[in-house]
Amino acid sequence: MVAETPVNTDWKIEDGVVVENGVVGPENGDIGRVVIEAPGVVAAARPGHFVMLRTWEGEPFLPRAMAPLSYDVASGRMEIFYRIKGPGTRAIARTHPGEIARVTGPLGRPVVEDFEGRRVALVGRGVGITPLLPLAEHIVAKGGEVRAYLSARTRDYVFGHDRFAALGPVRVRVDDEDGDEALVTDALARECEGYRVDAVYGCGSWRLTRAAEALGVSHGFPSYVFLESKMGCGVGYCKGCPARLRNGDGYKLVCVEGPVFPTREVELSDPVHGPPE
Amino acid sequence: MKAELATDVGPLRLKNPVMPASGTYDWFGRDPEQVSADSFGAVVTKSVTLRPQAGNPPIRVAETPSGMLNAIGIPSVGIEEFLEEVLPQYHALDPPVIVSVQAYSPRECESMLARLSEQPRVDAVELNLSCPNLAHGTITAQSARLSAEMVAAARGATRLPIVAKLSPNVTDIAEIARAVEEVGADALCLINTVKGMAVDVETRQALLGNRSGGLSGPAIKPIALSMVWECYQEVDIPIVGVGGIATAEDALQFLLAGARAVQVGTATFREPRSLARIIAGIEEHLAQDGLHSVGELVGWCHKGRLTVGS
Ligand SMILES: Cc1cc2nc3c(=O)[nH]c(=O)nc-3n(C[C@H](O)[C@H](O)[C@H](O)COP(=O)(O)OP(=O)(O)OC[C@H]3O[C@@H](n4cnc5c(N)ncnc54)[C@H](O)[C@@H]3O)c2cc1C
Ligand SMILES: Cc1cc2nc3c(=O)[nH]c(=O)nc-3n(C[C@H](O)[C@H](O)[C@H](O)COP(=O)(O)O)c2cc1C
Ligand code: FES
What we know:
Chain B: It is found in: Cytoplasm. Chain B: Catalyzes the conversion of dihydroorotate to orotate. Chain B: This is Dihydroorotate dehydrogenase. Chain B: It comes from Rubrobacter marinus. The structure holds 2 protein chains of 2 kinds. Chain A is an alpha/beta fold. Chain A has 2 domains: 12-107, Beta Barrel (Elongation Factor Tu (Ef-tu), domain 3), CATH 2.40.30; 119-226, 3-Layer(aba) Sandwich (Rossmann fold). Chain A has helices at 39-44, 87-93, 132-141, 161-165, 175-178, 184-194, 206-219, 254-257, and strands at residues 12-23, 31-37, 50-54, 64-66, 70-72, 77-83, 100-107, 119-125, 145-152, 170-174, 199-203, 223-226, 242-244, 251-253, 260-262. In chain A, helix 6 (184-194) runs parallel beside helix 7. In chain A, 52% of the residues are buried. Chain B has a single domain, classed as TIM Barrel. Chain B is built from 8 helices and 18 strands. In chain B, helix 6 packs across helix 8 (274-288). Chain B is globular and about 50 Å long. In chain B, 54% of the residues are buried. Classes of the chains: A alpha/beta, B alpha/beta. Chain A binds chain B through residues 1-2, 6-7, 9-13, 54, 59-63, 87, 102, 104, 229-233, 235-242, 244, 250-251, 271-273, and chain B through 23-26, 28-34, 46, 54-63, 65-68, 70, 72, 75, 77, 81, 85-86, 200, 202-203, 207, 209, 217-218, 266, 268-273. Bound molecules: flavin-adenine dinucleotide, flavin mononucleotide and FE2/S2 (inorganic) cluster.
């Protein structure tokens, strides 16, 4: 495979430690938060990066890809939110502080654009909100402006809300209060009228990312998406994480050529549940 | 005294008996320090095809108890771009380079091997026979005759060592092994993935984009071991064992069953340091048992029980 820019081979495998782990929000909720100390990976992480995480011995066999909400270089810790769904995330949920967490990373291509003077909209839903916070911090540090448009089932799941709010305006829409008809991108649509947006990044919802892309097309700004895919290795070895290219021209690998792609390049649809309705 | 890890696979001299399985490791011109392909016994490329192909639609991988299913479909840049862009990067590596070739007909095989023979840094070829034979509409590796035709075509086109990689999805593996030995294969690689599938209850459909796929990982180790053991008795050419190896102990089991070297695939996805750990673990075991070389272990199963104290 010949990539346009070199494949990221600057990752390491670190035997980190679980520092905190627990369910977020309602007691029997399905969202967990785990804090892992892995200073080597944390120090090298940039926005757009992800990690492969394995906090268990035995089954399941493969690690899970995770995009941390934050990396704290001072403490060497990363904070991950996970939706408890299948065997991998159930295994993470069973982990206790003090146990080993194998972390491979940082993986993927970081977002390295120059953000000085740029106004960026971030659109995220559920656990898909998390990779947007490192990006938001980076943009502001580089002299850009961010506005976050966050969506979730309930307020408890608007991860990092206050930290986004410290960086710029935040619009929130949650299903249990606002219903699931209106989209958080409706707010972006209104604000685009009086405010210049230079780029939008979407994550965690095909519907919202498609809506954000449509706004980009009508207002003339580029849109990007953080893609997910079932991953075998996360490092480019297995070729198991294809993103379907939009022109029908084959695939790119999410783990080494992404996870962030310009939306014009890739299909914005669920590989399991089919093309956009 | 340090034990000798070096081993021969036919004409190939390896500094240790551990290499990655095709399609489960890639050299991108650099490596993380913890992986370090320079420490491998050999490097095996992802299978390359004559013409470029995109691979299968998603989903390409699914997890199973103790392993995984894959239906990657061999995305390939095609042999010409491979020779121009990919292979030159391997010049930087110290271990022998084994290029895995997937040909859909003996003619394709011939023309790819002719091109590979002209290259300075190809040390051997591995023929991935577990693919459809376009002329016959069946899987090459499932027929002794088609497998022999493919290997014979390769033999006619190159003097490079030829490793024939066989499929476990057959009734009698020894019959295929004998057929490819007869037409000049230098070594066998046993085994490729075991055919399997996964069903998604939510969509009520096959989970993999290609519907069925290949099972790999610890789940298939017993199958691979028995095929190595059986072929060791039936053929004289050396065997490279592969299938579910995740630890040094797994690797030792393959050596004892008759493999002269081993490949590690799916275990790398779980733990990218697997090869390094397996190499170190084999060395430790040899020293512990007071053995001088890996070769002493090869095929021990067939010699009878090791009595305690002997
Ligand atoms: C770059 C990246 C970052 C990620 N970040 C996070 C994160 O921060 N937090 C988080 O919770 N998750 C994240 N994920 C998803 C995560 O890697 C796991 O896939 C997910 O958590 C499910 O794992 P599991 O073990 O619970 O369930 P699994 O058993 O692996 O999957 C649960 C169900 O989903 C289905 N499924 C598996 N793969 C896919 C697929 N590709 N598309 C649709 N359905 C599929 C399975 O068939 C199964 O029914 C990320 C993925 C990627 C690629
Ligand atoms: C993701 C993946 C891709 C593979 N690609 C190839 C390939 O291109 N050519 C080939 O001969 N075998 C391929 N294989 C098979 C492996 O080389 C190996 O024979 C098999 O996986 C069993 O070993 P393991 O259990 O250690 O993985 C692939 C296996 C996996 C899991
Ligand atoms: S997950 Fe293995 S290549 Fe992307």
